[in-house]
Amino acid sequence: MKGLVILGVIGFLGIMCTWWLMSEMNKDPGVPVLLAIGNPHDGKIDVHVCVQLGLTTVEPPRVDLQGVKHWDEWVEKHFILHSDGGDNVTLRFTAGSSLIPDHKAGGVPEGYLIGTLKQSESYTFDHIPSLQSGKKYRYKFKAVEGEKKMSRETFALVTK
Length: 160
What we know:
The chain is α+β, with helices and mostly antiparallel strands. The protein has a single domain (30-157), classed as Immunoglobulin-like, CATH 2.60.40. Helices cover 22% and strands 33% of the residues. The model has no long low-confidence stretch (mean pLDDT 88).
C-alpha cells in the first residue's frame, strides 16, 4: 500500500512537471528585431530598424496593379514609435541603412525603417504583425548615445 502511495505521488509530480514544461514551451517568444541607434547630432539621434522577411509574412504590404509595394502605408499600420511624452515618431521606409550593414542584417532584408529621436528621451516601440489578430509586441528603450549601436532586440507580447 505504501508503495502505491509513493508511486501515485511520483506520478502526480511527473504530470505537474510535464504540464509546467509544456506551458513554458508554448509561451509566445516575442519578435526579434534588429535595430541601431546612431550618434547624437543637435540633440537628436537616428534610429534604424531592419525589416526582415519574417516581419512581412503575416500581412505583407499592399501591391498595386503596377507591382509597386506601398511600404509607407504598411509601416504606418504595423510599427508605432512614440516617446513617453506622447510625441509620435515618423518612420520612413528605405532600401538601405548607414547604421546597419547589409552583411550584418542576417539574410536579405526587405528594407529599413528610419526615424529621428530626441536625445535622452524614453520611447515605446510597438509592432503589430496582423491588424486582425490584435496581437501587439512592444520594446521600450531610451535614446542614449553609445548605449546600443546595433543589437537584435526582442519585442515582447503585450498582454492586457
